[in-house]
Amino acid sequence: MKPGIDFPGVGAGLVIERDGKVLLYKRVKPPEAGHWSIVGGKVDHMETAHIAAKREAEEETGLTIGDVRFLCASEQIIPADGQHWLSLIYLADDIQGEPSLTEPDKLSDMGWFGMDDLPQPLSLFARDAFRHLRDRKA
User: Are 14 and 24 in contact (CB under 8 A)?
Assistant: First the structure.
């Protein structure tokens, strides 16, 4: 039995900000392979979502993540991939280091992007996160 496929999965994501830009990675695997997204992944059993967001972000970017703040919840049913995820998304600007592609089997490209110059296609999770981020800053 696989989360997100055989039953709704619980994920955690992290919007990483630096100098007015957000860090995005291009996904290799479903859900939404080929889409640009925030970093994140599955919440492990007995792991809190904010810790999962930090852990996944550190694994995927090589950055050291400090404090994170809750941004939003995003539930996505992705018929094309046969997946259903509920993700708690956090925000971090307390980061150290330079990001890299530490998991090339999962992520193929990366970059810092301004909110008015986001790459396409964007994942559904990233779209939700950025909508909440814009609302928060308005």
Answer: no
Q: Which of 25, 19, 17 is nearest to 69 (CA)?
A: 17
CATH fold group of domain 9-137? Nucleoside Triphosphate Pyrophosphohydrolase (3.90.79)
Q: Give the model confidence (pLDDT) of 57-109 as tens digits.
A: 999 999 999 999 999 999 999 999 999 999 999 999 999 999 999 999 999 99
Predicted confidence (pLDDT) at residue 116 exceeds the cutoff of 80: yes
Contact between 42 and 51 (Cβ < 8 Å): no
Going from the C-alpha of 136 to that of each of 5, 103, 119, the distances in angstroms are 32, 31, 21
Shortest CA distance to 71 belongs to which of 3, 110, 17? 17
> Integer distance in angstroms from the first to the last C-alpha of the chain?
42
Closest by CA position to 134, among listed 107, 115, 113: 115
3-state secondary structure (DSSP) of residue 126: helix
**At 3, is the pLDDT very low, low, confident or very high (cuts 50, 70, 90)?**
very high
Collapsed DSSP state (helix, strand, coil) of residue 66: coil
